[in-house]
Amino acid sequence: MEQPVQTQMWKAQTLEELVQILHHLFAGDKVNVAEVQALMDSYDSNPLEWMQYAKFDQYRYTRNLVDQGNGKFNLMILCWGEGHGSSIHDHTDSHCFMKVLQGNLKETLFEWPNKKGIGEMMKKSERVLRENQCAYINDSIGLHRVENTSHTECAVSLHLYSPPFETCSTFDQRTGHKQKVRMTFYSQFGERTPCATAVLQENN
Amino acid sequence: MCRHTQTSPTLRSGLAADLASRRSAETRRLVLSQRRLPGPLPPGLARWFPALEVLDVSGTGLAALGSELLSLPRLHTLLAKNNRLGGPGSLPKGLAEAPLLGRSLRVLNLSGNRFAELPAALLGLRGLQSLSLGSNRLHSIPPEIQELRSLEFLYLGGNFITSIPPELASLPSLSYLVLCDNKIQSVPPQLAQLHSLRSLSLHNNLLTYLPREILNLVHLEELSLRGNPLVVRFVRDLTYNPPSLQELAGRTIKSRNVSYTPGDLPGNLLRYLHLASNCPNPKCGGVYFDSCVRQIKFVDFCGKYRLPLMHYLCSPECSSPCSSASQSSTSQSESDSEDEAIVAAHRMQKVLLG
């Protein structure tokens, strides 16, 4: 007989505490999505705790690695300048939690393009995530685009991916055509880690 | 504890008193943002903070920035977003001419205000590197924008702009251009002259196609086009007005290299001949004047997406296969013969069915 899954309600008082509890939650093989989401929700964003990771780039959003989760997850902070957005992308069979630490982010959900892949991709829904709100997505739910639609404010978000992944697919909204891309970090553990820019990023 | 240094309302003198009490010859950054200021900035600002480099008055409800700024000798960054600026006199007269501020200012953020046109007071700021006017009420970009010779970063997202002046392309250092969330219907081909452009944001506009010259932006690393009604089908403009007799004569003179001297022709025809445009079809070598065929072709952009680009050809026949030997094409050149156009459509279908 299986043990009943107990969802504990955790409270992270600081970012450091959040990381510690995450290590505990991901120690085993199973991920309790509700538990992780509640934990991410519980942390009240305090810029003083994460500003060392929040490195902005003038041209596009940045990914800044915070913790490698003993190989079980990647925790990173994304910095979105005014008008910065991502392409439509999948999550390579991983869990993705996204919490807004500052500003607002618009998340647009899309259906997977069908096998024939002709024509405009279908928008499922969209919402604006406010400060401290946390969203969850995985490939079975669909694809999404995340963007900072503000022309006056920056946005910062905390992302947790488990298992960690380095490549994903991006999708052309007009045609459903997909392309594999390799993701890079702008900084790791607070240190800028430059690397050669890849091919042109067309944000479609 | 009110020091009445001037006959102004109590609150305003309160602000002046507060700032005066914080005066320092060393202060480089002054952040007054996110609290409602009772009135304009006090005139003593430059006296109290002579070393000021960064001033942030965002979100303070200011309706005008005045001459109190002009004597700040070292101010390089002025952030005044989310205020009530936009009416006449929002910016100090003589801003660009101010001997010190006019040269020191590098970054100016006026996003989230009420400007209905790009303030003329800014146009002489030859040292300005970064200008933000996002979320205002601009309907156009003045051609005088080209006077901002040092501009590298221009953010105009979230306005009501309907077109881009070709003069924008004269900005030699422009590397980041944001025009998203506007009402732009076309992009001038001259924009391809922005050799330093690294990032171009055009999403959420009214574009149906792009000029073929966009392929020349070799340093472009970021391009956003989503939310535009870009045509996806191979489109050919079927309304072709046959060329006039004058046009035909002009074409013949040019393509056959018929020689002429200024004395041979009246001035208006000389000027007309001067306006010949070369047909972009490399196999054609012809010219056209007023009569041309508009044709939208799809080009592989960096091996990724097929972008609809507008071509101007001298005649519908120009897209038909030529008997001359095929030329090798560079990775950025587009096909102009009918053969290759058919192949392109095929490939397009493959991509769509992909």
From TrEMBL, chain A:
InterPro entries attached to this UniProt entry: CDO_1, RmlC-like_jellyroll, RmlC_Cupin_sf
EC identifiers of the protein: 1.13.11.20
CDD domains linked: cupin_CDO (cd10548)
UniProt entry tagged with the keyword Iron: yes
GO BP annotations, alphabetical order: L-cysteine catabolic process; taurine biosynthetic process
Textual note on the cofactor: Binds 1 Fe cation per subunit.
Cofactor(s) needed: Fe cation; Ni(2+)
The keyword Metal-binding appears for this protein: yes
Coiled coil ranges: none
Crosslink site: 3'-(S-cysteinyl)-tyrosine (Cys-Tyr): 96-161
Binding site for Fe cation: 89, 91, 144
This protein's pathway: Organosulfur biosynthesis; taurine biosynthesis; hypotaurine from L-cysteine: step 1/2
Catalysed transformations (reactions): L-cysteine + O2 = 3-sulfino-L-alanine + H(+)
GO MF annotations, alphabetized: cysteine dioxygenase activity; ferrous iron binding
Xref: SUPFAM superfamilies: RmlC-like cupins
Protein keywords: Dioxygenase, Iron, Metal-binding, Oxidoreductase, Thioether bond
Role of this protein: Catalyzes the oxidation of cysteine to cysteine sulfinic acid with addition of molecular dioxygen.
Family per record: Belongs to the cysteine dioxygenase family.
Name the record gives this protein: Cysteine dioxygenase
TrEMBL record, chain B:
SUPFAM superfamilies in the record: RNI-like
Keyword Repeat: yes
One Pfam entry name: LRR_8
Gene Ontology cellular component terms for the protein in this record: cytoplasm
UniProt keyword list: Leucine-rich repeat, Repeat
The keyword NAD is assigned to this record: no
InterPro entries, per database record: Leu-rich_rpt, Leu-rich_rpt_typical-subtyp, LRR_dom_sf, LRR_domain-containing
Protein name: Leucine rich repeat containing 58
